């Protein structure tokens, strides 16, 4: 978690060096929650009076279920934990990070595989003028949740609850690159895990 906090500190340093505004929102992926807890804790301490809205994004949702339970305790998720976001398939939370997340994270989301796959494609082939980001499945989870929230009308209520608008400044962390070239080609080149047709508008 100390190492992940260094990453958050470096992101803050880079934003300030570039003259960018502070983040209003952070979408951060979670497995056991160590990265999410470190990032959330860093920015909560940096902006104690007005911290960014933190959205914790999972594949196998032990943190989401723990938040839903609402009594401060954690929930373990068993089974095979089958997901393309292998780095997030943990099923049990880090108790130290959970203590931070339950007090400072604003939202917990369980993300389907197709959303991470779409994020990988969007990041690799962005709009003109935006830099390409080569991200693996787990690294693209935060972006996947953000894209779903912004692009899908059925999530309008969630978008409103999160407070996303044209003035929002969103911070994302891609924590892995093309770590599995075979999977990366299948998803980005061949279109594996497509967005279900009912989502297209």
Describe the structure.
- This protein has 201 residues and is an alpha/beta fold.
- 43% of the residues lie in helices and 9% in strands.
- The protein has eight helices and four strands; from the N terminus they run H-E-H-E-H-H-E-H-H-H-E-H.
- The protein has a four-stranded parallel sheet with strand order 3-2-1-4, with helices on both faces.
Keywords:
single chain; alpha/beta; 4 strands; 43% helix; 201 residues; 4-stranded parallel beta sheet; Rossmann fold
Write down the secondary-structure element order: HEHEHHEHHHEH
CATH C-level: Alpha Beta
Kindly report the average pLDDT value: 92
Percentage of residues in strands: 5-15%
Biggest sheet, in brief?
Answer: 4 strands, parallel
Helix content: 40-55%
Uncertain stretches of 5 or more adjacent residues = none
Return the CATH architecture.
3-Layer(aba) Sandwich
Please provide the count of β strands.
4
Spatial strand order of the main sheet: 3-2-1-4
The CA-CA distance between the termini, in Å, is 40 Å
Helical run tally: 8
Oligomer: single chain
Q: By helix and strand content, what is the structural category? A: alpha/beta
The tally of structural domains comes to 1
- How many whole angstroms does the radius of gyration measure? 16 Å
CATH topology: Rossmann fold
Inertia-based shape: globular
């Amino acid at each position: 978690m100390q190492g992940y906090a260094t990453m958050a500190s470096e992101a803050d340093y880079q934003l300030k060096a570039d003259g960018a505004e502070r983040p209003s929102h952070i979408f951060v992926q979670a497995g056991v929650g160590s990265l999410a807890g470190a990032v959330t804790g860093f920015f909560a301490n940096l902006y104690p009076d007005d911290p960014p809205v933190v959205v914790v994004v999972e594949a196998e949702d032990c943190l989401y279920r723990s938040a839903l339970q609402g009594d401060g305790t954690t929930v373990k998720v068993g089974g095979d934990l089958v997901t393309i976001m292998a780095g997030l398939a943990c099923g049990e939370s880090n108790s130290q990070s959970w203590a931070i997340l339950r007090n400072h994270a604003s939202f917990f989301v369980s993300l389907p595989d197709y959303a991470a796959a779409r994020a990988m494609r969007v990041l690799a082939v962005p709009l003109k003028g935006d830099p390409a980001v080569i991200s693996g499945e787990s690294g693209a989870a935060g972006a996947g949740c953000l894209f779903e929230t912004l692009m899908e009308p059925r999530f309008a209520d969630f978008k409103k609850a999160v407070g996303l608008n044209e003035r929002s400044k969103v911070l994302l962390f891609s924590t892995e690159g093309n770590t599995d070239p075979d999977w990366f080609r299948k998803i980005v080149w061949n279109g594996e895990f497509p967005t279900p047709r009912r989502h297209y508008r």
